[in-house]
Amino acid sequence: MKNLFSTSLSKKKLAIIFASFLVFAVSLGILFYEGSKKTVALTLNGQEKVIKTHADTIQEIFDELNIPIHSEDYVFPTASSRVKNNSEIVWKPAKQVQIVKGNEKKTVWTTTDTVAELLKEQNIVLTKYDHISPGTQEPIKSKMNIAIKNAISLTLKDGGHQKQVWSTSATVADFLTQQGIKLNKYDRVEPSLTAKIKENAVINVIRVEKVTDVVEEPVQFAVVTKKDAKLAKGKQKVVSEGKQGLISRNFEVILENGKMISRKLISEKKVREKQDKVVALGTRVLIAQVSRGESSGGKEFYVSSTAYTASCNGCSGHTATGINLHANPDAKVIAVDPSVIPLGTKVYVEGYGYAVAADTGSAINGYKIDVFFPSNSEAFRWGNRKVKIKILK
Asked: How far, in Å, CA of 321 to CA of 342, rounded?
């Protein structure tokens, strides 16, 4: 019985010793396995991480981490490179970006950090007048849309003042807004606000103003004559002086770029009524008639003669001595050169009769006279003739 118990105990000790050895061996194996791993520093899309791995290549590390690598991604060293202890590995995933430039669209993959870096990568050069959205310092994001508008050269005329400008606007209205130009009520633009802008186009802003011009203008008075039997014939007397009237006129004036293009009368009103001048004309004596009983013993000589009427071209109807020939059509009057025949001299003209030298004329010089007739037909019949004239007194 004692031997049996001793044998059983020995078997248990052997089992314990074997199990302990097995645990030790496994632990030793684990320690050896772990100790054989390589330490790797990873920078994954900007995030730093340190791992231990048995991977032989960089691609195997990403496979272990379940990170898919695309051909557009940035990996350093390359995915096929072998892993060394204390390796530093950088991975930056590429982002898909759409670039819209004018009517052109282009989809690219990039690992750049900012819009500016992407432009440099794509060899896109912007001028200071070009517009890009979002801005060049914006970070690149996946599926980002980048719009580029290239500026074009334009000529801007504003109110007659001209300058060269650059613009990325699509329409004339957008361009004016970009330039900070405001249109007033009557202003107009050529071409129209909805027109598309083209390279080297001329945008003409015409400044239109409507103003009211008030003008006060004098109204000339008339001279009214009335007969006065108390005055000697040919005499005049001012009964009342004339006064000018005054009228106010309102004009609508349209100016384009400061220059008047139209002026239209829109209203008028009388400010002051005019007052006509009244002149009395004497009718008491018929100055021009000469009595046949006058002395006939004066000087005689020949003169050349013509005839005229009160309505001849350039005639006023009044003689140099004040006789109104319209009011006295039967008057016997001749026009003379006063240095030959003094005004007021009574004469007898052959074929015409008794008359008075009461008028002058620019063409009457020397021994020449002009005889008065009430009608054109009588003056034409007289014509141009040489006559004898006798000075009465």
From this structure: 11
Q: Is 186 in the same domain as 259? A: no
- Answer yes or no: is 5 within a domain: no
Q: Note whether residue 4 is domain-resident.
A: no
Same structural domain, 338 and 382: yes
Angle, alpha carbons 239-244-247 (nearest 5°): 150
Instruction: Show the beta-strand stretches assigned E in 168-258.
Output: 188-190, 202-206, 208-219, 223-228, 236-240, 245-256
Instruction: Assess whether 80 and 99 both reside in one domain.
Output: no
CATH number at residue 328: 2.40.40.10
Paired tokens of 278: 């009244």
pTM of the model: 0.47
Q: Do 319 and 359 lie in a common domain?
A: yes
Query: At which residue do the structure tokens 């003669």 appear?
Result: 305
Which residues in the chain come in under a pLDDT of 50?
2, 5, 32, 285-296
What's the rounded Cα separation, in Å, for the pair 357 and 332? 9
Nearest to 119 by CA among 91, 93, 144, 90: 144
pLDDT at position 292:
45
What is the extent of the structural domain holding 108? Answer: 95-149
CA-closest candidate to residue 164, choices 205, 195, 202: 202
Nearest to 332 by CA among 299, 377, 370: 370
- Residue 11 forms part of a structural domain: no
Same domain, 143 and 71: no
**Whether 128 contacts 168, CB under 8 Å:** no
Rounded-to-integer distance, Cα 34 and Cα 21, Å: 20
Any residues with CB less than 8 A from the CB of 303 and at least 6 apart, and which?
A: 367, 368, 369, 386, 387, 389
Count of domains forming the chain: 5
Name residues whose C-beta falls within 8 Å of residue 275's C-beta, 6 or more positions apart in sequence: 221, 240, 242, 243, 245
23: phi then psi, degrees, rounded to nearest 5: -60, -40
Identify the residue whose tokens are 């003739």: 385
Q: Strands 333-335 and 368-372, how do they pair?
A: antiparallel
Say which CATH number the domain at 49 has.
Answer: 3.10.20.30
Radius of gyration of the chain (CA): 61
Same domain, 230 and 304: no
Q: Which position has the token pair 């005229």?
A: 308
Q: What's the pLDDT tens digit per position in 228-260?
A: 877 777 778 888 888 999 999 999 999 999 999
